[in-house]
Specification:
Elements (H helix, E strand, L loop, with lengths): L14 H4 L4 H18 L12 E9 L9 H9 L1 H9 L5 E7 L6 E6 L8 H20 L2 E6 L12 H9 L8 H13 L6 E6 L9 E8 L4 E7 L4 E7 L3 H8 L19 E3 L11 E2 L5 E5 L5 E6 L12 E4 L4 E9 L2 E8 L2 E5 L7 E2 L17 E5 L8 E5 L5 E5 L12 E5 L2 E6 L4 E8 L2 E8 L4 E8 L6 E9 L2 E10 L8 E8 L3 E8 L5 E7 L7 E6 L5 E6 L2 E7 L4 E6 L5 E6 L3 E6 L4 E7 L9
Parallel strand pairs: 3-4, 3-5, 5-6, 9-37
Antiparallel strand pairs: 1-2, 6-7, 7-8, 10-11, 11-12, 12-13, 14-15, 15-16, 16-17, 18-19, 19-20, 20-21, 22-23, 23-24, 24-25, 26-27, 27-28, 28-29, 30-31, 31-32, 32-33, 34-35, 35-36, 36-37
Helix pairs in contact: 2-5, 3-4
């Protein structure tokens, strides 16, 4: 019962906060939310926003004042007066509807918690529930949420993240809360002009109420039950709760919101660390080969890269790292692994150089308005090399930063041609993935349709499938492979969340032959989506890997829930997922590479670059 799994409808208002916990803790906290929420009453912090002001155009409507009639309707009036009158009689005219914006209020919901000995243990559990309830209450009212510790007057925190909630749990003191602190808080709020329409006091004893004050009194009885009394200016409500499972409660109080990760490698399977020559780039995500068996990484401050091979099951001999260098006068724009070698396209002066790509000649670089590729960018562009014998067409395809798919062939790069060497294959492209030596897959979105196409080596485009989608996603990630001539995999469409919520991912799994199943997953707030990988329990299905905001914890979410799969000792600076979802490569700030397989639960490879400056040159 977490954000990776459809929550019961009653818990949907708090999904962004329940996403911080694993299934067991989310179920426990969710039960408290449902039982405590009715005690709080209606929100008094509803903002008085004043008169709404026009802010652009929102929509087209069939009714409205004629000064907002669209210009095309006036054109009909000039050319076809009778048609204009008919459209008016049948309410067919179109009017511009203004978008209305209301000024933001400075309303505040402030939660103050007694962190002293009277609220230690079980009462602190309900502090967690109240913190979430009041954060959601403020969001629903359009107000700001802030919290503080009663024993620390004037110390207000407005951060409402999982780390902030942990900070609350860690804020302990031996001092008892007194009326002195209550008075000091009231003076602080009055002196700083805080619009504290609602001020909530979580204590064990009664406090003298002030204007806008709400009190939540929590007491741990001798019968191992929690007595909760909520007093607002309008009502007084009470509730008795039983104590939860001790193990889950202890983990929550320690701030362990998710289960500890499983062992990174199988018992006895020791993975030696490979020492590399040079410093690994901390910006460029590692580049996987199509089959996920090879991995390339640039070396910081050089024009070199290292190619590593993942050891196959049952193979004893270990392949040595292979180093290669592109021209020192150029910058590598994109890379591709072919024939166990790293190749790519480099920007050299005003031209493009096809590095380690036989039968391609240097060409002039397309103009900036036709090819968005800045040398020295943080990450390489996506690239594919569709190959055949020398006498046949070979094709290099690059997806530029503006979503244009551009193509060069061995014939188009021959000297003496008057035509430009490149051709724009398509635009508005969200993602591209080479699936074998003869074709690549790419996806583009237009209106409410996602079209997934094959581009073949000979240049012909074939529609693979099209899906109805709610809107254009901010990002699309692909995982897939060809089996028995047919592509199967997953399409991951990422959409932004609202306010401080995490985003939403629509995961389409399957293939054109037997159709796609759709799964909607809510992403934890602040987490970075890395991509879809194989579900270790069901390899034909996918789950998503995400990097938490602490940049050290990799979590997996899917149909079966949420779990931690990897905990780094240093911040992770770059990450990538293999095209077939068989592995994920992580580079941390200490220059260590770790490749994980089996959905992120097993170490396949470890390598350590030389130490140096934490920044790329």
């Amino acid at each position: 019962m977490n954000a990776a799994f459809p929550l019961p409808p009653a818990l949907q208002p708090w999904h962004a906060w329940l996403a911080w916990f694993d299934a067991d803790i989310a179920a426990m906290v969710g039960d408290w939310l449902l039982r405590l929420d009715p005690l709080l009453g209606r929100g008094a912090a509803r903002m008085q926003r004043g008169v709404a002001d026009p802010d652009g155009i929102d929509d087209l409507r069939r009714r409205g004042p004629y000064e907002r009639l669209v210009l095309s309707e006036w054109a009909v009036a000039d050319l076809l007066p009778d048609e204009f009158l008919r459209r008016a009689a049948h309410y067919e005219h179109l009017f511009l509807a203004p978008k209305l914006a209301r000024p933001r209020s400075d309303a505040l919901v402030l939660a103050l918690f007694d962190a002293g000995p009277a609220q230690r243990g079980a009462p602190r559990l309900l502090h967690v529930a109240m913190w979430i309830l009041l954060a959601r209450r403020a969001q629903a009212a359009g107000a700001r949420f802030a919290w503080g510790v009663l024993q620390r007057p004037g110390e207000v925190h407005e951060e409402a993240s999982a780390e902030a909630l942990r900070a609350l749990l860690q804020a302990r003191t031996h001092a008892l809360a007194t009326q002195t602190e209550h008075t000091a808080w009231q003076r602080h709020l009055a002196g700083h002009g805080q619009a504290a329409i609602e001020c909530w006091w979580m204590t064990a004893g009664d406090v003298a109420p002030g204007r806008g004050d709400h009190q939540v009194r929590i007491r741990h009885g001798f019968d191992d039950r929690l007595s909760v009394s909520v007093r607002t200016p309008r009502a007084h409500r009470q509730l008795t709760l039983g104590l939860p499972d001790a193990g889950r409660a202890s983990r929550l109080l320690r701030g362990e919101f998710l289960l500890a990760p499983a062992p990174l490698a199988m018992p006895g399977a020791v993975v030696a660390t490979e020492s590399l020559n040079g410093r690994l780039s901390l910006r460029q995500p590692p580049l996987f080969s199509i089959d996920g068996r090879h991995l390339a990484l640039p070396l910081a401050g050089t024009h070199q890269a290292v190619l590593l091979t993942l050891r196959e099951e049952g193979r004893r001999k270990k392949a040595k790292p292979r180093y290669s260098a592109w021209p020192a006068s150029g910058e590598l724009l994109c890379g591709v692994i072919a024939n166990k070698e790293l190749a790519g396209v480099a920007a050299v002066h005003d031209g493009l150089y096809f590095w380690k790509m036989p039968w391609f000649q240097p060409v002039a670089r397309p103009p900036a308005d036709a090819f968005a590729a800045a040398p020295g960018a943080a990450s390489w562009l996506h690239c594919a090399w569709l190959r055949a014998s020398k006498s046949q067409t070979q094709r290099v395809v690059i997806l530029d930063a503006a979503g244009r798919l551009l193509s060069w062939t061995n014939a188009s790069t021959r000297p003496g041609r008057d035509m430009p060497a490149h051709v724009q294959v398509d635009d508005r492209v969200l993602a591209m993935q080479q699936i074998d030596g003869q074709r690549l897959l790419y996806a583009r979105c237009e209106d409410d349709r996602l079209r997934v196409n094959y581009l073949h080596r000979e240049g012909n485009i074939e529609l693979l499938t099209q899906l109805a989608v709610p809107a254009r996603p901010v990002r699309l990630l692909v995982r897939g492979q060809v089996r028995e001539g047919h592509w199967r995999g997953a399409l991951c469409l990422e959409y932004p969340g609202q306010h401080d919520d995490g985003g939403i991912c629509r995961l389409y799994q399957g293939g054109p032959q037997d159709g796609f199943s759709e799964l909607e997953l809510r992403l934890p707030a602040g987490a970075k989506l890395l991509g879809p990988v194989q579900d270790p329990q069901r390899p034909e299905r996918s789950r998503l890997l995400l990097l938490r905001p602490d940049r050290r914890t990799v979590i997996a979410i899917g149909e079966q829930g949420q779990e931690i799969v990897y905990q780094a000792s240093n911040d992770i600076s770059a990450a990538s997922v293999a095209p077939d979802g068989s592995g994920v490569a992580l580079v941390d700030m200490a220059g260590q590479l770790r490749v994980l397989g089996e959905g992120g639960g097993k170490v396949l490879l470890q390598a350590q670059g030389q130490r140096g400056d934490d920044r790329d040159d």
